[in-house]
Amino acid sequence: MSAPAIGTLNNSPKQGGKSASAWLKLRELPVTVALVVLVVVTAVINPLFLSPQGMKDLLLNATIMMLLAAGQTMVIVTRNIDLSVGSILGLVAFGTGSIFAANPNMPIVLVVLIGMVFGAVLGSLNGLLTVWAKVPSLVITLGTLYVFRGLNNAWAGPKQHFAGDRPQAFGNLSVNTVLGMPIITLVAVIVVIILAIFMIGSRPGRDLYAIGSDPEAAKLFGINVSRRVFTAFLINGALAGLAGVLYASRFNAVGATTGSGLELDVVAAAVVGGVAIFGGSGTVIGATIGAILLNTITSSLTALRVDKFWQQAIVGVLIITAILIDRLASLRHAKNLREKEGRNV
Amino acid sequence: MQVSTAPDSTPVLSLTGALKTFGPVVALADGTIELRAGEILALCGENGAGKSTLVKILAGVHSPDAGQFTVEGNQCSFKSVADSKAMGISVIYQEPTLFPDLSVAENIFIGRQPKNRLGLIDHALMRRNAAALFVRLGVPMDPARSAEGLSIADQQLIEIAKAISLDAKVLVMDEPTAALSGSEVRRLFGVARSLRDAGAAILFISHRFDEVFELCDRITVMRDGRYIGTHLTATVSVEDIVRDMVGRDIDALYPRTETVIGEVVLSVDKLSRKGVFSNISFEVRAGEIVALAGLVGAGRTEVARAIFGIDKSTSGHVTVHNTALPVGNPRAAIAAGIGFVPEDRRKQGLVMDLSVARNTALTLRHKFSRFGLINSRAEKQTAATWSRKLQVKTSSMDQPVSTLSGGNQQKVVLAKWLATEPQVLIIDEPTRGIDVGTKAEVHRLINELAGHGMAILMISSELPEVLGMADTVLVMHEGLITARLDRDSASPEAVMHAATGSKEKNS
């Protein structure tokens, strides 16, 4: 019995790198291919699309969504969801505007920190309610979506803060570039990379996948499910807070409705990027690429002079396609396994 | 053969006189087991003998109410699964729980993944370590693949690999072979033997005597939650073990009532469902109780579901009073006069949040409705009638059934079906999870119903119930009927042998 075993192991020296078939199984592959095809096709038809200014616009538009999608991935991977991120972003963005309006000389770094802490507090509220009340986070965060938005309405009323109230340097974060990238995009990219490393390379990060894969088994394995889920909501809130501050840098006006409806775009980006809506699999990088793809579609359809009304329908088709590809792939995978094992018996 | 197992060596694990009760139900009265290093010990007993409870105590899932528990001479009282693991005990369940989205290697090392200099998980090292474990086990397995879609046999091997990586001294295998093919069983046995020879203590739980006798060094038998005895495999026969497992006075518990048996009501002819059961034929007559006996997983519930039409049979016929039932149509089955009391009351028999009245009348809602609305007064009257007949203990007909005790819930399910005045009643595990007093009441009820001419098909894993109640006993094993016994020839030994698929010598 042991002889064939050792033989098989000797035959598979691929310990470090990935084989071709392993690359094909990557969940980020479809969304990446879609993005590349979209960019190439658009650029061929309209060469201005890939001009430095065109690229910069593309990245700026995607920045906020990249951050939100990366954070949302953490939550979805644990078999939860946070629908309140648009409202968190709105509150923090208006808060940022208010801080600068009252105190234009406040250091930018401090404002960013305040925004992230504010977001983290709101996110941890989601986490606490989900973990303690044991109510599905879909319901909890649907509730906090309205509560946070209501607070924003009460606070802002009809008032809006405009970019003119904010320091020039703050607005420049969205104008100046480093390595061809706007500074806020660079910030988002760094955050996404840190989060991706956390999810792939740390025990708490892997625990999140285990929890989403089988919450009951995770408990049996001694994983502190409540603490991990709570932390995921907290970090997601902090990222939504960061996105709120960056939003105030990027856009002129922040007010009571800032960020409304963003939550569905975020979930769409994650799903298109290969994050399984029932948890357990998907990556931060995939979701980020999904966010870039959704924003690029909007830009490229504009560049191709396609009627704006088609854009939403195309995004919808993409979401359904992403899920169908996923489903087909897993069905085929299961069938292959059955056949392989059938031969062994 | 290994002779390194000195019979007088100190036990690795010893549990003595463990008691575990759940409310009024005594699940384990005297849980006693002694495991030594370098041996494989079998634990045998009928369903309900307390084996699972004992395993859960070892695993740290339950803590015993009383009893002595030592591991390597140290007193233990486990508060959690983690405590049990920390003491070197690993349990491999019949169906392991793995994380399907994670890789094989990660399933083994989750929570203790090796880290590199940067403090990040070293995925390559983790895969190498996993591969080394599989080499030790002598089985091929790609550590990088995801656990999704792995066969149960492979999932068990991952659990065993994990146990080894945790330096487990005691390995408990709870019916590991129930879902394995022949070659998978041989592979598992090879692994078990090599672990034993390396000094591990293994507790092996199985209903298959051929496996027990092939693999194990000693055999411990339990019955009715009590330790009965331990034998050296070399000096004991299958007959001895079976006698230990069933030996009790059954007649005292179940007074037999003589009933007049009438014409054939339910007739099942060569019923098959591909891959589940095949060629099932039997008849149930008016006033007759037919018991479908066998071990859990033998396919009995599946047969009942196919008769009632919940699952589609792939061939064969079911007829009630000479009228053939259409395949896969429970409404037609109800109309033909079949009632079905399922095994899992909470999931299949009751709507837990609805009232006693609503639940009782659920099967009759067509009769009570006028213009699509249900007449709740008629509903309550019917419910009250049947609740009185069955002595359901409830403060009002409006009380939600979720607040009733298990026994009373079972009565509501019975009432629900009796209200349809069925001619055939299929009842799956009628007394599972209910206390002894109610149990006797349910038995009395079933006897009465048969006395009134109802044809009853009863599925039961409890041998005394089967032998005490049934006029005819059908025994199933792995999807086939392996024995048909009438009341006089149905002995515990005969049922046990047919249920385990072992050959009975000289009888």
TrEMBL record, chain A:
Role this protein plays: Part of the ABC transporter complex LsrABCD involved in autoinducer 2 (AI-2) import. Probably responsible for the translocation of the substrate across the membrane.
PANTHER family reported in the protein's UniProt record: ABC TRANSPORTER PERMEASE PROTEIN YPHD-RELATED-RELATED, AUTOINDUCER 2 IMPORT SYSTEM PERMEASE PROTEIN LSRC
Transmembrane domains' residue ranges: 29-51, 58-77, 83-101, 108-129, 135-152, 173-200, 229-248, 269-297, 309-329
Protein location: Cell membrane
InterPro entries noted in UniProt: ABC_transp_permease
Lineage, top ranks: Bacteria, Bacillati, Actinomycetota, Actinomycetes, Micrococcales
Subunit-structure text: The complex is composed of two ATP-binding proteins (LsrA), two transmembrane proteins (LsrC and LsrD) and a solute-binding protein (LsrB).
Main location class: membrane
Topology of this chain in the membrane: Multi-pass membrane protein
Source organism: Paeniglutamicibacter terrestris
Record's protein name: Autoinducer 2 import system permease protein LsrC
Keywords per UniProt: Cell inner membrane, Cell membrane, Membrane, Transmembrane, Transmembrane helix, Transport
UniProtKB/TrEMBL annotation, chain B:
InterPro entries named among the record's database cross-references: AAA+_ATPase, ABC_carbohydrate_import_ATPase, ABC_transporter-like_ATP-bd, ABC_transporter-like_CS, P-loop_NTPase
One Pfam family hit: ABC_tran
Gene3D superfamilies xref list: P-loop containing nucleotide triphosphate hydrolases
Key words, A-Z: ATP-binding, Cell membrane, Membrane, Nucleotide-binding, Repeat, Sugar transport, Translocase, Transport
Domain ABC transporter residue range list: 13-249, 255-503
GO MF term set: ATP binding
Keyword Membrane assigned: yes
Keyword Transport: yes
Protein name: Sugar ABC transporter ATP-binding protein
